[in-house]
Predict the 3D structure of the following.
Amino acid sequence: MVCAQNHDQIGNRAQGDRLSSLVSFEALKVANATVLLSPYLPLLFMGEEYGETAPFLYFIDHGDPALIEAVRQGRTKEFAAFGWTDIPDPYAQETFDRSIIHPCLETNPQQHAHARWCQALIHLRKSIPTLGTGAKGHRIQIGSHAKCQLLIIHRRAQQGPEALILLGFHHKASLALVKLPKGNWESHLDSGTFAAGDQEELLAPSNLNLQNVEQASLKFPPYPVWIFLKAD
């Protein structure tokens, strides 16, 4: 099982910060794709599928007063070494209330775009064998481009078309000559088409004709996710 975040990682932070409150929307889409298009069993934590920003704080509901006080003191001491003193009371009702999720997909353009993005990734994972859980006969080749902070993932299976996944982790646009597997690759999904509001994105090329070469000069936006399928 793989995840970008889970309840332990978030809840044990001093302020319960989710990844959605720490990185940009574009970076979140890369994190989603990295998890949902992996050959392992993916886990999305409550609200991650639409980019929930409410914290998930450490809270308790014990009945033993001594245990409650011990947990309170333990949390305070744990973070004192970092110089952090404003730690939410794990037994306070307010701490629990702040952790309640607030899906607003109909009124929040970014949440709506984020939810559609995760739905599209899950649909690909379920409908295209080469993008699902690795099984017998499944092969993966992984390359990279250090300057662009780019992962190049080539997936093959006994059924379904070969898949080429480009995941970018750089916050700036870049131009690079990238080594890619041969073939005629057609764009199937692009994170740039899932922008919030009227944002303009640099989109993936609709086709990469690499029948006779194994490289292409490509211009990438910040944090791209480009998914290509090999044409027959």
In short: The chain has a mean pLDDT of 93.
